Amino acid sequence: MKSQVKVKVSDLTRYLICPRLVYFSAKEHHEGMAKGKERGFIESILLKELAFNLHKFYGERKEDDPEPEPEAESETETEEEHAKRVIDDTVDGVEMIYKEELKDVEKDFFEEVKEDFIRNLSMSTNTENGDWLEKVRTENGLLELENAYGYEREHAMLSEKLSMSGSVDKLIRTEEEVIPCMIKTGKCPEYSVWKSDRVQLAAYAMLIEEEFGFETTVKRGFVEYIRNAEFRETQIRRRDRALALQILKRVKRIKGGVFPEKGGNAPCDKCVFAEMCETRKTLLSTLFGK
Ligand code: SF4
């Protein structure tokens, strides 16, 4: 009989941060904004949306765009003005696209964060601080693929065999390949991609292979560290797949009710479950003298 425990790819990433996050998330369904982290949460959403619209900085077209973005509104529009307009337009739609995620955010606060975000990014599009825009515009493998083939946004997949589902940020399909691409708004590693990102890509690879058929083998993926405008390609190796499967099994056990040990580098000081975790620990110590 197939396992009834359904796992999301994001559970695997959560497990690598701290296995107990999987346990509490399954019990509490606590997603979204941690108290005191509202600004960071909104900024991440704004950055992510910008990553979905990078093609507009070049006047290129993505697969499900109704029409290509004009390169410049008028002949006199400078590159900076164009970039500023793209940022303004993108940020404007965010409230409607992320209605559910932003439902508890005060309108005034959202506007304030949005204004700051636009101001900071616009500052980095002027000639003195043009680093971010410069990097976004620099030729890279991902950009070339997106320009040539477009991408499908938030492609959702489900595998009955693995009892796992997931929605990959961008899915690029060439004549020979299906390539998953993830947008990350957090810190960028010095080289390559974080281990948790490799595991997540391997999980998407397995979902893609099941959806697209046996002859499809996903060999590579991309991670966009959008805050730093770094676009990293990584090979999806056997050991990443093996690790993803191993974690998948552990996540299923946790979601089935097993309370796990905390992670080695668990970020307890900024965890939304800190209180619950402490109570549970105290309860176990009382019961079993641990
Ligand atoms: S408080 Fe620490 S150990 Fe508990 S779930 Fe959060 S990160 Fe993990």
Describe the structure.
With 290 residues, this protein is of the alpha/beta class. It folds into two domains: 38-140, no CATH class; 142-248, Lambda Exonuclease, Chain A (Alpha-Beta Complex). Helix content is 47%, strand content 13%. The protein contains ten helices and six strands; from the N terminus they run βαααααααβββαββαα. The chain has helices at residues 9-17, 19-28, 38-52, 79-97, 107-123, 131-137, 141-149, 195-212, 238-255, 274-288; strands at residues 7-8, 152-159, 164-173, 178-184, 220-225, 230-235. Strands 1, 2, 3, 4, 5 and 6 form a six-stranded mixed β-sheet that branches. A hairpin with a 4-residue loop joins strand 2 and strand 3 (164-173). The chain starts with 6 loop residues before the first strand and ends with a helix. The relative contact order is 0.17. Bound molecules: iron/sulfur cluster. Iron/sulfur cluster binds at residues 18, 20-21, 24, 262, 266-268, 271, 273-274, 277.
Question: Secondary structure elements and their pairing?
Answer:
Elements: E1 7-8, H1 9-17, H2 19-28, H3 38-52, H4 79-97, H5 107-123, H6 131-137, H7 141-149, E2 152-159, E3 164-173, E4 178-184, H8 195-212, E5 220-225, E6 230-235, H9 238-255, H10 274-288
Parallel strand pairs: 1-3, 4-5
Antiparallel strand pairs: 2-3, 3-4, 5-6
The chain binds iron/sulfur cluster.
